[in-house]
Amino acid sequence: MQVRAAKSGVGQYIYALLDSAVRLAPDDKFLVYCNHTNQSNYTYDTPNSSTKVWGLNSGRRPVRLAYEYAFLPGTIRRDSLDVFHGASNFLPPRKSCPYVVTIHDLSYHVHPERCPPVRRYYWYAMTARTVKVADRIITISENSRRDIEHFFPDSRDKIRVIAEAAHSRFRPLDAPRDAGGMARLDQELDNRPFVLYLGTLEPGKNVVRTVQAFDTIAEKFPDHLLVLAGDKGWLFEPVFEAIASAKHRDRIRYVGHVSDDEAVALFSYADLFVFPSLYEGFGLPPLEAMACGCPVITSNTSSIPEVVGDAAIQVNPESVDDLALAMETVLGSATARDEMRQSGLARAAEFSWEKCARETLEVYRELA
């Protein structure tokens, strides 16, 4: 398996999948190709797993990718792999063994306007090549399956839908807030109640409207903060422009990248998690929030309804008014929050990384 990602988004998928797979298949060997910055994220305490630092450390993405596509097939052949899994959307351009790819979504096909042109056309070309060389395509929702079949009709017989899950670390914390992993963050949050967004800051996540909706209701909930957590992606500047324009900008706090433990704490102690993404291949953050007992407001689009079911409030993500009304409804009712916590915990329990790993291992064995 090849890993480019840090442990967020796709990286969380890779980490949790491998964490279960190496334990479910102790007689199989797993080799993970990593770069020098993420090797420690994908190291497991099992004798059947290992990592290999591979590729260039160049900060110039085109150089690094050109090297990878030129030389990775030869490395795979020399390592005598039975199956190679490209777990983050792409495969090497030349075949060295049976290939599996996980295509998480086709957002750049469905919403091309939300992606810079150069990046978009690179993804178009690489996805077309990947679909052609793949022996099996794993995707993570029925919505993504439909998108792949729409844009690549010949891929229909290759596709397997295998759902993600919240990692077992995502659970309600029994400890009080001042002892539950929030120490660093509460220096910035002043121990105040808060509404949470956690994810990458990029246009498709719709964070600007989240800021605008919170600003609309902030006077009714004067103690609450809006906390934005996560890495800066592409075209993140409008988020900070929206904060600067907000009437209640002093109550909107960006805390940047957070650790796994801090993410669990944020979900556990937030009064509300807001995730009005415009498009998701699966939508893992709402499920992680529900697994921690946090009420969720999210989108009624793409794959998200099939993930959250009736356990979250779904809104039109392009309507600031709908988003603000949902926030006001949840924050204004302790009873509603308690009911959403219970239904969210039950919904999250329906998904399992062990099930995901078992079904993925079946795909490997079909080919090997």
Summary tags:
six-stranded parallel β-sheet; four-stranded parallel β-sheet; 12 strands; 368 residues; alpha/beta; Rossmann fold
Structural description of this entry:
- This protein is α/β, with parallel strands linked by helices.
- The protein folds into two domains: 172 residues, Glycogen Phosphorylase B (Rossmann fold); 172 residues, Glycogen Phosphorylase B (Rossmann fold).
- 42% of the residues lie in helices and 14% in strands.
- Strands 9-8-7-10-11-12 form a six-stranded parallel beta sheet, sandwiched between helices.
- The longest helix is centred in the N-terminal third of the chain and has 18 residues.
- The model has no long low-confidence stretch (mean pLDDT 93).
Spatial order of the strands in the main sheet?
A: 9-8-7-10-11-12
Largest β sheet strand count, sense and barrel closure? 6 strands, parallel
Name the quaternary structure: single chain
Shape: globular
The end-to-end distance, rounded to whole angstroms, is: 14 Å
The percentage of residues in β strands lies in 5-15%
Q: What is the residue-mean pLDDT, rounded to a whole number?
A: 93
Structural class: alpha/beta
Instruction: Report the strand count.
Output: 12
Per CATH, the superfamily of the largest domain is Glycogen Phosphorylase B
Extract low-pLDDT stretches.
none
Following the backbone from N to C, one meets helices and strands in this order, namely HEEHEEHHEHEHEHEHEHEHEHEHHH
CATH class of the largest domain: Alpha Beta
Number of helices: 14
Radius of gyration, in Å, reads 21 Å
* Relative helix content: 40-55%
